[in-house]
Queue: 2 jobs
Job 1
Amino acid sequence: MPNRTAVHPELYSPDYADNPSLSGGKCRACGYAFFPPQRYGCESCGAPPEKLEAVQLAGRGTLHSYATVHLHMGKDIEAPFTIGLIVLDDGPAIRSTLTNRTDAGLAIGDRMKSVLVAAGTDQEGNEMVELRFARAEASK
Ligand SMILES: [Zn+2]
């Protein structure tokens, strides 16, 4: 029986039906939250790695900026596609591909939410899922 597999399992779980949380980290010394997870120490207060803990960050935030790529030679994704910088409600900013292929209808300040989209199958036949961000229509 095929399973779902995340393209980047260190960043999110493939098991969500909708609006997945993101695997980030938090500093126990100062409360600073960050994404993606890292083990070097707190970027904000300089606390050592032992003070960092893994936390799940809600996949919701606000669109801070975006850019549409019209010409792309890679085979991983077909142009046009749009990359957004989303400031998560939990603090960190994340750069992510958006479900919107172009910037039509997008505006700075739009409410965004994480979604998982199909990204083919791996060699064992598992369904691959990739994290994207989409406009959260319900917020208006
Ligand atoms: Zn800190």
Job 2
Amino acid sequence: MMTYGLKLICSLGVAVALGGSVASAAGEFDNAIKARKAVMSLYAWNLGQLAAMAKGEADYNADAATTAAENIRILASMNNGSAWPQGSDSTALPGQTRAKVEAWTTYPESAEIGKQLIVAATAMSEAAGSGVEGVRSNIGAIGGSCKACHEKFRESD
Ligand code: HEC
């Protein structure tokens, strides 16, 4: 009986704690921020595969390299403007996003960097299937576009 009572109290406590955290974390821009971070994670996932091949940490595979490059090109070509609503910057929402307000105030500067990424990823798509050298010679331009945007528009860690 004692054990049962304790369990009941514990599970109620958990339910209350979860309810509380869900309510306080739910903000107007939560899902938009989640969505744009998901795009970024997919960039990193695909670029990581190319980087591993370029460094010789993974065996070169023409199909896998071309697919990863294509994925980056397609991701960069998507119009995900809806995931970047006004007011969802790190000045307004510190701790919830690393997107600097400058991404909005200097727009379309960030979009121009996005266009460079499309160009770099297209070049990678065309070269990635022809050998590991094709991956090596194009990866710098892709990484450079990521870096250029992060340096200007993303809070450092
Ligand atoms: C147009 C600008 C831009 C480009 C291009 C860009 N990023 Fe980002 N990235 C950002 C911003 C801004 C954030 C912060 C997003 C946030 O916290 O809301 C970010 C966040 C990230 C994150 C962290 C995601 C998370 O879960 O917090 C990763 C990883 C990332 N970018 C990888 C990449 C890679 C890899 C590339 C290149 C293939 C890239 N990004 C290209 C602007 C860019």
